[in-house]
């Protein structure tokens, strides 16, 4: 696709997609700054993405994921607000690497039956990739709620892959959103890393 066609596609995106884009960017930036308000913008962004994924792109696993984000957004807001230290923020933690490895393997295994169901009963596109990214995104969001440093590593990889998924689904505005997410996630990692416990994998759940 050339740039002129891309520009035309972006110009015809509707208000819901623009709201999803802008609130999503604010969400990730505020998360990098450890601001509990980030969750409010995340809830709005995910609600918009869920609607468009259902009505336009038929990414059914992503619909479920974005709905999960809306629910966990309220949990994240509550968790970040009440778990403050004397310095004013919930502390950043890390987790042993073996638990990350177990979760990733389980996510790929569970993706097979779940993607089969979505393909055959929900007319889903890119079923296995969509489902794998959904499960990993759920895990990354749980890590973000806990303020685990390594949530940013997951998001960098996930956002790059979602960029390709939305591009192939002709969701060009959301593809650009995930490019920005990936860049901001690199920044988030760099911002959180100096505040994390010494040794990336010293804390367990």
Brief description of this entry?
It is a multi-pass membrane protein. With 205 residues, this protein is mostly helical.
Written description of the protein model:
The protein has 205 residues and is mainly alpha-helical. The protein has helices spanning 3-11, 15-32, 38-57, 60-82, 97-121, 127-146, 151-168, 172-192.
List the helices and strands and how they pair.
Layout: H1 3-11, H2 15-32, H3 38-57, H4 60-82, H5 97-121, H6 127-146, H7 151-168, H8 172-192
Helix pairs in contact: 2-3, 2-8, 3-4, 4-6, 5-6, 6-7, 7-8
Task: Classify the secondary structure makeup into a structural class.
Answer: mainly alpha
Low-confidence stretches: 199-205
- The share of residues in extended strands comes to under 5%
Number of helices: 8
| Largest β-sheet summary | none
The global form is globular
Range of helix content: over 70%
Total domain modules: 1
* pLDDT averaged residue by residue: 85
- Specify Rg, calculated over alpha carbons: 17 Å
Order of helices and strands: HHHHHHHH
Number of strands: 0
What separation lies between the terminal Cα atoms?
45 Å
Which short descriptors sum up this protein?
75% helix; single chain; 8 helices; 205 residues; mainly alpha; transmembrane helix
